[in-house]
Amino acid sequence: MTVAIKTREIHYTAADGSTLIGYFAAPESETAVAGVLVAPEWWGRNEYTEQRARELAEHGYAALAIDMYGDKKVTTTASQANEWMMQTFQDADTIVTRASAGLNTLAGQPEVNADKLAAIGFCYGGKVVLDLARSGAALKAVATFHGNLTPKAPAEKGQVQAEILVLHGELDSMVTLDDVAAFKAEMHAAEVEHEVIVLEGAKHSFSNPLADERAKANGVDLGYNAEAERQSLDAMYELLARQLG
Questions:
Q1: pLDDT tens track for 28-62
Q2: DSSP 53-108
Q3: Confidence class for position 1, pLDDT limits 50, 70, 90
Q4: If we measure between CA atoms, which residue out of 26, 100, 63 comes closest to residue 240?
Q5: Is the Cα torsion angle 65, 67, 128, 211 positive or negative in sign?
Q6: Full 3-state SS string of 101-112
Q7: 204: exposed, middle or buried (C-beta count within 10 Å: 0-12, 13-18, 19+)?
Q8: Distance, CA of 41 to CA of 205 (rounded, Å)
């Protein structure tokens, strides 16, 4: 049975002064439901990110696809995406500042049970939600799809509240298996509950049906993999059901 959902854009401001525009989706429900933050790939808060938010709403969660660049800027050009992404790296606090603003906005919606929050992220968005978790944000679960795993600062013992799930493509040339090993070591050192699933034959951006088109247009090593997409989404929904109830 498909759940009836509602969507709206939400304008919010981060502590760094940036004006951000999120995309909110929630089931038509009389009671407040668990909320999930959705952090985008480096392309920006595009239709793909919004689709994932709507799917979460159809599964009974409220979801906010967040804007990390301001004014919901999007692109399909890798050089532009890289420029915008690198701008958020210039100040070490920018990512967590903007993601925290998104999380606070999500938690403040009347449809959301602010005691049950999670975050998911794709590629660049994977780093966004991991750094948010590392900052001590009140998250019960975090899932990353072909995410950048390199920390702003390594997780500290007792800081991360979320159970973390990393969904990684075996053939990802942008985030290597060495990066995965370093991430695992970081999580073990900080005693964070986590799982890493390496998806056979999958490249970077395996969850995005437009990955092959973007790869061809930009000369970058991306690839869609329908089976990896299915397996990774199943694992994410299992995590959310376990941690958010």
A1: 999 999 999 999 999 999 999 999 999 999 999 99
A2: HHHHHHTT-EEEE--SSSTT-B-S-HHHHHHHHHHHHHSTTHHHHHHHHHHHHHHT
A3: low
A4: 63
A5: positive
A6: HHHHHHHCCCCE
A7: buried
A8: 9
